[in-house]
Specification:
The protein is built from 24 helices and 15 strands. By secondary structure, the chain is α/β, with parallel strands linked by helices. It folds into 4 domains: 147 residues, P-loop containing nucleotide triphosphate hydrolases (Rossmann fold); 67 residues, no CATH class; 150 residues, no CATH class; 56 residues, no CATH class.
């Protein structure tokens, strides 16, 4: 069922309180009002906000407001507005905008509870419209209401917005390809921000697409925990042959995704089971459930990347997205977490709304972890495309990395490289960056680099043993095979006791 079909079904079932998570309450009211007119014989419709009070939306609503003797200025208080709504005739509906800001007080909450039975018996409805409903509605109200999520505008709706703006600007009808590019740049935005961004980027020659993308990036980056990655010109990947070949096949295959999503440090984002409940009173556990449901409902595939810090786990999805001209969205679960029950879930739903809209339901998820120990097994099962182990770089990977980073940090391509056994690609980068800053050679800069394979040898060795035969190698074909890279030699004598 579509969003409007679910709404109409709730109204036909005489649902007394309906909540709608929406980024644009005004546009949603228009959409729901049209559905009422088409499917429910246009009952009296009123709207409320905390500045204007109760207002009529249609002619039956205007007549109803006169009948109950309620003046807009006298119903600014939400309690008085709901008391006036009790006098409305059967089938009436009242849209309350942003009522969630008042639901921290007991009186409005109790009034909503009091409306339930009187409204149920004659098909009246209170419809709550807001962007933060999930996190604000108390459980005593939530259990008796129907909560709906309005999806962001479809491609067709965005196309209508673009064409309408161009007509208003008296521009000639655009080529179909230009409209497709414009709607693609607007996917993920609510109706009004999309219209605003398109209007600001409209010129006599048409839409300025690069500026439109930048507007979208700015708007989406304001969503807690969501960032649209800015492509890096000339992105290159050194090594990681096996996983890069695998991901390239996915990104160019018959079911190629439109968007790549990256969730960094998954073991920190989602503490397992009981631990999450102890840490934050169950907020993290509820957020995990929303994440799992969204992954399952949208059938999003995913890859888990586990291994040594600095081995390219986060860099790989970014480079692959750049190389294949795809959008990459990073999700920060820590930034989405809120202290109020329901707030974290609402933020995750908002993030997935954006992903769903931009990807048109075709997204590929990556999750990086340093250790799998704290990761809930049910979360691991959602990442259906395999778990890859990232080790320190081998000789071939290191040989490929040095020219890339020498060029990036303006070093001579002939500059001698240090002994790099057991290094990660990140340490090659750090060495070249240090050499540029100090104006020295990579060999001299290496004296300031302590490879993680030495500084955290025991932890990494444990990680490798856990991965042996259990995960796929990111560097070579097949399963990962344990090899002890070894710490630096201490000069100790090798002994065997009898």
């Amino acid at each position: 069922m579509t969003f409007t079909e679910r709404y109409v079904a709730a109204r036909r079932a005489s649902t007394p309180v309906i909540g709608v998570n929406t980024a644009d309450p005004v546009a949603t009211m228009e959409k729901l009002g049209a559905a009422e007119k088409q499917h429910l014989d246009e009952p009296p419709i009123l709207a409320w906000d905390c500045v204007r009070g109760l207002m009529p939306v249609n002619e039956p609503g205007k007549a109803a407001l006169i009948t109950i003797g309620a003046k807009p200025e006298a119903t600014v208080n939400p309690m008085l507005a709901m008391q006036a709504a009790l006098k409305l005739e059967r089938r009436s509906v009242v849209y309350f905008q942003n009522l969630e800001f008042f639901l921290g007080e007991p009186q409005p909450v109790q009034m909503l509870c009091n409306l339930r039975d009187p409204f149920k018996i004659n098909s009246r409805a209170i419809v709550l419209l807001g962007a933060q409903l999930s996190g604000a509605i108390p459980q005593v109200v939530r259990r008796d209401m129907t909560l709906l999520d309005e999806p962001l505008p479809t491609v067709e709706e965005l196309e209508t917005i673009v064409l309408s703006l161009m007509e208003s600007a008296q521009l000639p009808p655009p080529e179909k390809g230009d409209v497709v590019k414009a709607t693609d740049a607007l996917c993920g935005l609510a109706a009004f921000p999309a219209e605003q961004a398109a209007a600001m980027c409209m010129t006599k020659k048409g839409l300025l697409l690069p500026e439109l993308w930048e507007h979208k990036r700015t708007i989406l980056n304001a969503i807690p925990g969501l960032k649209v990655y800015r492509p890096q010109a000339g992105s290159k990947l050194a090594g990681l042959r096996n996983i890069s070949k695998y991901v390239s096949g996915i990104l160019t295959g018959p079911k190629a995704p439109r968007v790549v999503c990256l969730l960094d440090e998954g073991e920190k984002s989602f503490a397992s089971g009981a631990e999450a409940g102890v840490q934050d009173g169950g907020v993290g556990k509820d957020a995990l459930q929303v994440f799992l449901t969204q992954m399952e409902d949208n059938e999003y595939p995913g890859i888990i990347e586990v291994g040594v810090p600095g081995s390219g786990k986060s860099w790989l999805p970014k480079v692959m997205a750049d190389l294949h001209n795809m959008i990459l969205i990073t999700l920060d679960m820590g930034a989405m977490r809120g202290g109020i029950v329901g707030e974290s879930e609402a933020r995750i739903r908002t993030a997935f709304q954006v992903v769903n809209a931009i990807s048109l339901g075709k997204a590929l998820f990556f999750m990086t972890v340093n250790r799998l120990a704290g990761l809930p097994p049910e979360l691991r099962r959602r990442f259906t495309l395999g778990t890859f182990f990232f080790d320190v770089a081998d000789e071939e990977e290191l040989a490929a990395a040095w020219p890339i980073y020498k060029a990036k940090y303006n070093l001579s391509p002939k500059a001698k490289t240090p002994n790099d056994k057991g290094w990660t690609i990140a340490e090659v980068r750090n060495c070249c960056m240090t050499a540029e800053m100090l104006g020295c050679s990579p060999v001299d800069a290496a004296s300031y680099i302590v490879p993680v394979s030495m500084s955290a040898h025991d932890a990494i060795d444990t990680m490798r043993r856990e991965a042996d035969g259990r995960f796929i190698s990111a560097s070579y074909d097949g399963k990962y095979v344990y090899q002890d890279i070894g710490a630096s030699s201490s000069g100790r004598r090798a002994m065997q006791l009898m």
